[in-house]
Specification:
Blueprint: H1 2-34, E1 37-42, E2 46-48, E3 51-53, E4 56-63, E5 68-75, E6 78-89, E7 96-101, E8 107-114, E9 119-127, H2 132-136
Length: 137
């Protein structure tokens, strides 16, 4: 009986520690993406990587290491455009966007600044093509 009761004590000591570790890991995994996403509201149509985005609300997500990241812009749950950007540190008191003049008087989105994340995305405005395997299907 002493082996069994010792096992129970070990089990009771290990399980809470494992649960705490798992909970912390899940929290960290969930918390990390929040720092690499933001919202974007456009008052006028703009072009991003050859795709025209209509006015409205969008979600912006970026991933990558270093200052070069891949950016995806979503409307609802649908990704509408993907491009590359340079991730810049920027301490701005409010979210804002920068444009440049495109052809025929269109606006081209060049930078998105996020106050909460203290960063900005300088868009390269080159479309990310799908992989050749997917394009062939």
């Amino acid at each position: 009986m002493t082996i069994l009761s010792g096992s129970k004590r070990t089990f009771r000591a290990v399980v809470p520690a494992v649960m705490l570790l798992v909970s912390a890991s899940l929290w960290a995994a969930h918390a990390t993406p929040a720092s690499s996403r933001g919202s974007l509201e456009l008052s006028d149509p703009v072009n991003v990587a050859g795709t025209q985005l209509q006015s409205g609300k969008y979600r912006v997500e970026w991933a990558g290491t270093g200052d070069q990241v891949e950016v995806k812009i979503y409307r609802g749950n649908k990704a509408v455009v993907s491009t590359h950007a340079r991730l810049l540190k920027e301490d701005t008191p409010y979210d804002h966007v920068n444009y440049s003049a495109g052809e025929n008087g269109t606006k081209v989105l060049t930078q998105i600044s996020f106050s909460k994340q203290k960063c900005a995305l300088r868009l390269e405005n080159e479309s990310i093509s799908p992989a050749p395997e997917r394009a062939a299907k």
